[in-house]
Amino acid sequence: MVAKKSRIVIIGAGMAGITAANKLYTAAGSKDLFELVVVEGGERIGGRINTSEFGGDRIEMGATWIHGIGGSPVHKIAQEINALESAHPWECMDGSSDEPTTVAEGGLELEPDVVDPISSLFKNLMDYAQGKQVFDESPERECNGDFEYSKLGDEASRICASNDGVGKLSVGSFLRQGLDTYWVWKKNRDEQVSGYTNWSRKLLQEAIFAMHENIQRTYTSAGDLLTLDYNAESEYRMFPGEEITIAKGYLSIVQSLASVLPPGLIQLGKKVRKIQWQPDNRKNKGYESDTRPVKLHFSDGSVLLADHVIVTVSLGVLKASICQDSGMFNPPLPRFKTEAISRLGFGVVNKLFLQLGSIHAPPKFQDFSKFPFLQMVFHRADSELRNKKIPWWMRKTASLCPLYHDSSVLLSWFAGEEARALEALSDEEIINGVSQTVSSFLSQNSHSHELCNGNGNPEENSEVKFSKVLKSQWGSDPLFLGSYSYVAVGSSGEDLDSMAEPLPSDDSGSAASSSPPLQILFAGEATHRTHYSTTHGAYCSGLREANRLLQHYQLVGVQKNY
Ligand SMILES: Cc1cc2nc3c(=O)[nH]c(=O)nc-3n(C[C@H](O)[C@H](O)[C@H](O)COP(=O)(O)OP(=O)(O)OC[C@H]3O[C@@H](n4cnc5c(N)ncnc54)[C@H](O)[C@@H]3O)c2cc1C
Ligand SMILES: *[C@@H]1O[C@H](CO)[C@@H](O)[C@H](O)[C@H]1NC(C)=O
Ligand SMILES: *[C@@H]1O[C@H](CO)[C@@H](O)[C@H](O)[C@H]1NC(C)=O
Known about the structure:
Blueprint: E1 6-11, H1 15-26, H2 30-33, E2 34-39, E3 51-54, E4 57-60, E5 65-66, H3 73-80, E6 101-104, E7 108-109, H4 112-129, H5 149-164, H6 171-186, H7 201-220, H8 230-233, E8 244-245, H9 251-258, E9 266-267, E10 272-276, E11 294-298, E12 303-306, E13 308-311, H10 315-323, E14 329-330, H11 335-343, E15 345-347, E16 349-360, H12 363-366, E17 374-377, E18 399-402, E19 409-415, H13 416-424, H14 427-442, E20 463-471, E21 484-486, H15 493-500, H16 510-513, E22 520-522, H17 535-552
Parallel strand pairs: 1-2, 1-13, 2-9, 6-17, 10-14, 13-22
Antiparallel strand pairs: 3-4, 5-8, 6-7, 10-11, 11-12, 15-21, 16-19, 16-20, 17-18, 18-19
The structure holds flavin-adenine dinucleotide and 2-acetamido-2-deoxy-beta-D-glucopyranose (2 copies).
């Protein structure tokens, strides 16, 4: 007699789910032991990998970069399937090597001698926070032999710790303490900078610093860096080497992993509404040992029994599911899980693509192929000096840059409240708001001092029009409810480990031992302690959970450390 196969259901066809399916399906001997199903709520695979098209160009609505090619499993697959080359141009194909043009609100281009010292200050502070070795690359180094950034970091974290109390230190407060310390060390005099109307040196430095903070917000998805935990920052790992984008599209990686699976194994349009499981056998009279312990209820009314379920839904979806009374899990998840889920951060990051229509600008910017990699340095939102025509949701946008060298499609990143607001705006509101902003930044773009007393030479005013826009909507899409996770103040790396813990949990005492093991497993970027928020983190978590099951069924000897 042939024993009944165990049924493994993977919830979610994103990077983690497809990787787990690939591993389980291809493992030697697994086909005799398992019946495998992937259920996906959406109508496509890929999840937060959403390669798309805009204005004739291939674009990424979600995951964009391979964060360091050295040792990245995503890079390895991309190489194997030859996805890193294309006859057509692709998003950020030139890397991020283009020199940015940094312009201050009001239209004055900032010289490197103003921008660079603050940029290296910021970079050194972040390196310090991330536990990297700090080298002083500041152009002022020669003139400031005594200025040591590592000491600055020590000083800033010491002051912060004493202000906030240990364990509550945020990256945001550390950074600001670093800037203040820098000013004290520089004995900064708050003088007017020649040529820069409306900007004192200190205001300008603070605004450049804020621009870098805004870039950091999009990297981490923490809408407010004061909510980003300082201590966890040094646990995050990056792969070495350059960061690149994928010529044939990020989706090609997921498609390649999915290509080994037989048709029908992935079921699209199957949204899980409820997961019934058996944490304690004795309390659950309904459970019979010859039926499968987990029962999935779908939005379409259908049900599916399973022996093991790998949950890969986003942290945002999990947060929503524990908030509602009729949560996704029945019985509800144990406390250590719900606490980790609520403490960890999950923010919104969105990308905006704009098709350039007409442009009337100073000669420098006339030509589409020369639209700059524009970095924008804004006045503070509460400043009287701000241009009131620029909408609030643009004020934390650090840059606007062509998709690739001579593309007429521009790309911007948004985070936090601004990213949420973007999702609710109409295309017309976005076009008007961005046009106002860009036109204002590209006007009067010179160092001509005559501009200071009036509104400038009318010929120098520019008008930039966009014909079409496309934005991602990660915050409002019910299948994601945000973009990626971060360690919030009050949380820690341990919460990421708790996220990965399968249920019933080992720790729940002897009661657990009477119920079937490994009923609910968790994968996804938010379950990886050192590579959370990334595609390779999701990939590794998928492998980890597949291997957990393979090991349970003794199909692999050792469980590797992911
Ligand atoms: C704008 C943006 C930019 C990014 N940039 C990068 C980058 O440059 N580099 C990088 O490495 N990473 C980046 N990321 C992060 C990366 O995309 C994610 O970390 C990774 O793709 C997450 O994969 P996952 O499998 O964990 O989750 P997901 O991709 O979210 O997969 C989960 C799947 O579950 C499905 N699902 C949800 N609820 C249900 C339900 N109830 N029933 C059934 N199915 C359900 C979802 O539809 C989804 O397909 C970015 C993300 C975003 C949003
Ligand atoms: C300086 O600020 C004032 C508002 O206080 C504004 O009217 C003026 O246009 C600004 N000048 C420049 C060059 O930005
Ligand atoms: C994924 O891309 C499509 C365009 O191809 C877009 O309509 C959809 O909104 C994107 N998903 C999210 C969550 O942004």
